[in-house]
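Bumping with the actual sequence this time:
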Amino acid sequence: MAVVMGASEDARLRQEAMRFLTIRTNDGVDSITREELLDFTFDGEMFRLVDPTRGIRKPKELSSALSIMTTYRAEGSERPYEDEVGGDGFLR
């Protein structure tokens, strides 16, 4: 059974995940596949950044959801929702 991480470990995992994505996507210039997202490791252990069946994942180890996916939209179409930065610096 997975143990819930403390706040500092949770934040460190999220920072490492963003660093991984920044490197793998050339700072957002290149796309990344779901399969490539399976290469992420944290403290030497594999950690899935995505759920195979949905965009938002709530890992047992984390206190809140981990979402790194967005919805595709055709050029010029309305967004289904707007991302906003919360007071803690995380996107909502």
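The tokens above came from a reply further down the thread. The chain has a mean pLDDT of 83.
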